[in-house]
Every structure is written in structure tokens, then in C-alpha cells.
Amino acid sequence: MMRDMLRESMDAVRQGSDPLGVVREAAECITFDASMAQMHALS
Q: Considering Cα of 16, then 21, then 37, then 42, what sign does the dihedral take?
């Protein structure tokens, strides 16, 4: 399944399209401010 998705994404790029997961519209972008310390990822 994962290999199929990867192949489909590579084919899309070859044809000039965006691969799965690429968002180019600014209205759809989500930004947030969180550092690694705030997320307790280093503890």
C-alpha cells in the first residue's frame, strides 16, 4: 500500500502535478508556535 502511494506520487511529479500531501494555497496553511521544550519532547 505504501509503495503504491509512493509510486503514484512519483508519477504525479513526473507529470508536473504535486505529490500527495502538498498544499499550495495560503488559506489552507496552519501555523502554530510551539517549541520542543513546551511540548515536553526533550524530557
A: negative
* Dihedrals phi, psi of 35, to nearest 5 degrees: -95, 165
Q: Is the pTM of this model over 0.85?
A: no
8 neighbors 20 (Cβ within 8 angstroms): yes
DSSP per-residue letters across the chain: -HHHHHHHHHHHHHTT-PPTT----GGG-------TTTTTTT-
pLDDT given for residue 11 in this prediction: 94
